[in-house]
Amino acid sequence: MRRMAVLLSGSGRTLDNFHQRIVAGSLAATIQVVITNNVRALGLEKARNYGYPAHYAADNAAVNAALANYSVDLIALAGYLKLYTPPQSLQRAVLNIHPALIPSFCGPGFYGHHVHEAVKARGCTVSGCTVHFANEEYDAGPIVLQRCVNLDLDDNPDDIAAKVFAVECEVFPEAINMVDRLGVEYFWTRSGQ
Asked: Over the stretch 30-58, which tens digit does the pLDDT of each residue have?
């Protein structure tokens, strides 16, 4: 069972998904704390309504200071829109989900709707999502799990976003369960990083 911190910047839809799956018993994790870099994030209010300790932290130092008060062995980036540098003890335990199939449409500037707009502009017939460990470089850590979605020729970026998010709701919890089962180091060793 993973003891998670959830970092978010927005609405908290991924937090909703995690919470529902924890309650249902299908996610091998507990949420110890939720932290946001956006004081107006709806996810902050949702976390409090769910009964999770929830904090606003403007930067890495503040996030890590808040984390120090909790027993955490996995950090889930759930729509956290800043490059995050964890404390040394959690350096290899930061899990992110990216709304494309890495190595496509990733790196600096490729987040959220920008990704789906780029997928549409390129004329892709598939997209998907990638759960990966985060390191000091955007979208460059070891991949845990990927899932593909088929796109229709007339899908717009909003359609693509909806299809990808539906798959993200399945894949992120599945990846956390894999990490719980296989351990964090398995993925770093497998990728040679």
From this structure: 999 999 999 999 999 999 999 999 999 99
Residue with tokens 């496509």: 104
Q: Single out the catalytic residue among 19, 98, 116, 132.
A: 98
Question: What 3-state class would DSSP assign to 45?
Answer: helix
Active site residue 98: yes
Contacts of 49 (CB under 8 A, 6+ apart): none
Query: At 86, which amino acid appears?
Result: P
Strand partners, 6: 34, 76
Structural tokens at position 155 = 């899908």
Length of the chain: 193
Residue carrying the six token digits 């909790």: 70
**Domains of the chain, earliest start first:** 1-91 (3.40.50.170), 96-193 (3.40.50.170)
d(CA 77, CA 89) in angstroms, rounded, equals 17
